[in-house]
Amino acid sequence: MPLPPEEPQIHESAQGPRATPASGRTAPTPRPVPGPRPAAPSRPGRPGPPRPAPPAQRAPRDAAAGTKPAAGTEPVPAAEPVAAGRPEPTAATPQIQLIPASAEGALDAAEEAVDLLLDSGRAPGDLLVVTTGEPHPWATHELSFGEASYWAQHDAGDDVFYADAQVAARAGTRPVVVVAVNGGPESAAVSALSVAHARAGALLILCGDPQRINSVLGATV
Q1: How far apart are the C-alpha atoms of 123 and 3, rounded to whole Å?
Q2: pTM here?
Q3: Alpha-carbon torsion 171, 167, 208, 56, what sign?
């Protein structure tokens, strides 16, 4: 079933599909805003000279906590998530939300979604961001110090982790997965959406062209 586009506003949802009918759906109460994300600290135990600071990330918008959340979309029936990494306490089909964006604006839309999720109380370690085209600047920066260091940060599970479609299959399950369909070949989009759906424990957010996403999603789930 095609996913209806949503405004770029993210809200927390219960694990899996909602039990109440659509007519009786109410917006959950936002959790306390945790404040802006600090710059990624240097990880202990890294050899060699101090590394330069990673690319700056936007601070969460001050008004995000007061934004009225948009109505959630209905989850799309799909295969059971792959058991990997740190699964949610109860296995369930993740809720899927679509944020319309161009290929050029998909990464920015994904970053805004991350900011809103953090503002709503999600821990940074709950989030995995997958790109289909150009990697996120954070991933490029961290990979410049070697794959071992890059994946050690994934395994630590204490910060938002960014991966491109080629390596996302190695990532473990996280409660929330955000996909930026920011270009790349069709095979990359198919791989990214398939992996993202398997890795999302509670919520899957898709940022990109709705027509392309629905076409690819229909072929992967």
Answers
A1: 27
A2: 0.62
A3: positive
